[in-house]
Design a protein that fits this description.
By secondary structure, this protein is mainly alpha-helical. The protein has seven helices and no strands.
């Protein structure tokens, strides 16, 4: 193993822990008594975002070969914020009602999601810089939804997420 593989281990481990928590919550798809559409859509959305970030993390792995200690911490912040957001989203065990759980946690979940997405604008992180518009819209809708949790704001955010998937697909396969 070279130095880059060692340096990639910690951020990918953090993403792996977060994705493990997310996939553990997919049990809600099997139990119709715990179905709450915004929660289930958020699980799918956040899982896709996490898998995509793991995938694109390898694109800037060559940059890690001559990185300083403090710069390495900057690369660790996005996975750490993602893990915090996932922890807010996935610890449903204290609640018997998924809707009550989700609505009580909307603010921290979506503010952390907005913070995570905004970290992709930092100059040292080169995560798909060509999709800046969907990211900017997602930050705006996450922030609005955190403070004004109306269904149409949530579904506008979901639309932006779907638009970003289409944009990423088009960019990758053009």
């Amino acid at each position: 193993m070279d130095i880059v593989e060692y340096l990639l281990f910690i951020p990918l481990l953090i993403y792996g822990i977060a994705l493990s928590d997310l996939f553990g919550q997919w049990k809600h798809f099997m139990d119709s008594s715990s179905w709450y559409t915004p929660y289930l859509i958020t699980l799918i959305m956040v899982t896709e975002i996490g898998v995509h970030n793991v995938f694109v993390f390898f694109q800037f792995s060559p940059e890690l070969s001559n990185i300083t200690y403090f710069a390495y911490w900057l690369y660790l912040f996005p996975p750490l914020v993602f893990l915090l957001m996932v922890n807010c989203l996935t610890h449903v065990d204290d609640y018997s009602d998924t809707e009550t759980f989700f609505t009580a946690r909307i603010k921290p979940i979506f503010l952390l999601l907005a913070a995570f997405i905004s970290m992709h604008f930092m100059p040292f992180i080169h995560f798909d810089n060509h999709i800046w518009l969907p990211r900017l819209l997602a930050i705006v809708f996450c922030t609005i939804y955190a403070f004004w949790p109306k269904n149409f704001v949530f579904y506008a955010l979901v639309g932006v997420w779907l638009f970003s998937i289409i944009t990423r697909f088009y960019i990758i396969y053009k």
